[in-house]
Amino acid sequence: MKICSAPGKIYFFGEHAVVYGENAVACAIDLRTKVKVEVQSSEAFKIEILSNYKAESYPYVVKAVEKINEIKKISNKIKVEIKSQIPAEAHLGSSAAVTVATLAALNSEFKLGLNLEEIAKLGHEVEYEVQGAASPTDTYVSTFGGIVAIPERKRFSAIDVGMVIGDSGKSSSTKEMIARVRSLNLEYPEIAKGIIKTIGSISKAGLQYLEKADFQAVGRLMDINQGLLEALGVSTEQLSAMCNAARKAGAYGAKLTGAGGGGCMIAICSRARVQDIISAISILGCKAVETRATNEGVLIE
Ligand code: PMV
């Protein structure tokens, strides 16, 4: 029996623009998914969901088992147990985390000797094949942890700053949100390209401020990034309202994270302000939780 866990992620900067080759900065967070893999004598392949995981996400686990089977024929009498702290379909990387943790647990249980690069690559293939489209960002961040600059995949240590996630409670499809930006890009190419390019510049500048731990500047750039995501049409009234509430309550900055159209926003702030920001978001009827950046990628528990 083996148990592995892997983290979810947020984007500090650059979602959507990264689809057009621009820079982005993502970061592993301390919400994790735990996967237990067990070989049983009597039962065939079985997935057991213990918490916070929706049946729609079974395909990631099934595909991960398939991928491992292509490398080495493994027993089909496997029981996979999933326990997750990451809300599903909220653009916090829950599917990448379950994929990476499953691959790592199978790797360990069946002594396959895959290294982290190989797990990240297989994880991307799983997401790509299940979803029909996926950037390697989520699976890479979930495998390695820390802050990751994309597309170079350069890794930086996690930062020490207050972070609050606000969850709109509405799910949305990443594929549809990407299509929305694509159609804006077709209709108004000059305008959309300008916005996308500017988001890329924000990511580059933002990374430097993250390295210097200048959180006022990071927050200011997150606010500008949010304005541009609104311009691209991927924010929602609720996401924008949560960002505004967080700023009013003293956040350095706030923006949606991931594809938008629902899902979550992220605010950064001094530790002293975390509770104020959680309260300000909760008043809007949305769920807010404190989170932290983490250097811990996939782990054997
Ligand atoms: O919604 P998420 O967390 O899967 O993030 C999507 C980010 C996009 O840039 C919109 C797409 C991508 O694959 O990079």
Radius of gyration, whole Å = 19 Å
Instruction: State the end-to-end CA separation.
Output: 11 Å
Beta-strand residue percentage? 15-25%
Low-pLDDT windows of residues: none
Major beta sheet, specifics? Answer: 7 strands, mixed
Q: What would you call the shape?
A: globular
Helix content: 40-55%
**H and E string:** EEEHEHHHEEEHHHHEEHEE
Q: Number of DSSP helices?
A: 9
In round numbers, the mean pLDDT is 92
Count every beta strand, where a strand is a DSSP E run of 2 or more residues. Answer: 11
Structural class designation: alpha+beta
Ligands bound here? (3R)-3-hydroxy-3-methyl-5-(phosphonooxy)pentanoic acid
Question: How would you describe this structure in keywords?
Answer:
9 helices, single chain, 4-stranded antiparallel beta sheet, binds (3R)-3-hydroxy-3-methyl-5-(phosphonooxy)pentanoic acid, 7-stranded mixed beta sheet, globular, alpha+beta, 301 residues
Give an overview in words.
By secondary structure, the chain is of the alpha+beta class. 44% of the residues lie in helices and 24% in strands. It has 9 helices and 11 strands. Strands 1, 2, 3, 4, 5, 6 and 11 form a 7-stranded mixed β-sheet that branches. Helix 3 runs antiparallel to helix 4 (137-144). The model has no long low-confidence stretch (mean pLDDT 92). The structure holds (3R)-3-hydroxy-3-methyl-5-(phosphonooxy)pentanoic acid. Residues 15-16, 18-19, 91, 93, 134-135, 137-138, 174, 178, 258-259 line the site of (3R)-3-hydroxy-3-methyl-5-(phosphonooxy)pentanoic acid. (3R)-3-hydroxy-3-methyl-5-(phosphonooxy)pentanoic acid (PMV) is lined by residues 15-16, 18-19, 91, 93, 134-135, 137-138, 174, 178, 258-259.
